């Protein structure tokens, strides 16, 4: 009887050990399969410009490169036209991790990193070559890294051209012509300080509100690059464009810290490489649109003379 009980006990122990081993193998296999199973993690990227705008074109190039470099494990869906909110709102959502990625201007980011606000300083670089050598190099990397303190990760800078003033009232031939004008600016201390130093009243507001505000007289003018001035139809209501290119605040591709912490070191490298490699595509699209915008604006001005 004792031998029979012992035999049954040994069979039960063997069965338990066998099940444990199978469970361990199955778990390891499942972990391995997850990486090579073809499952894709889909990420959301916010963009407030239209689908065919240079920054959106850059976003899409970035998305394509991410998918290629991660062997399809990550897919980035670009939501253009402000579908996920205006810039300030999307920055906050990236901080919270409710949006994975976004393309925003460096100016509103200065609220979260005063260091990156240096890119808005007037006449900061001597020429385009110096500008992109710095932004794509170690200096740019150091600036982007300052965003980590605010739960964001900076991946790359995009081109946003040179910003100039335009208004509904009068040609701006000298600094004193700015006196008394209400000028829309991005929500940053640097932008506000520059406009107020010129004697105008700085009025921070979201980009999507500018056209109607110019039209109704809530503001007298704004400052932006030629493509934004043209594609947003601001030239229809603000006929006076002063081409001084006083600042060239770049755009920034950012990611949430939540997303970043979930990536392996290999995937982090893939995302960074994808962002940097997409810069050339974005800048080429920017140069093309700038020329088209200048021609379109000049044609409109002549027709209205």
UniProtKB/TrEMBL annotation:
The UniProt record lists the keyword Translocase: no
Pfam families noted in UniProt: DctP
Residue spans crossing the bilayer: none
Position of the signal peptide: 1-20
Keyword Cell inner membrane assigned: no
UniProt keyword list: Signal
CDD domains, A to Z: PBP2_TRAP_SBP_like_3
Protein name (record): TRAP transporter substrate-binding protein DctP
Lineage: Bacteria, Bacillati, Bacillota, Bacilli, Bacillales
Gene of this entry: dctP
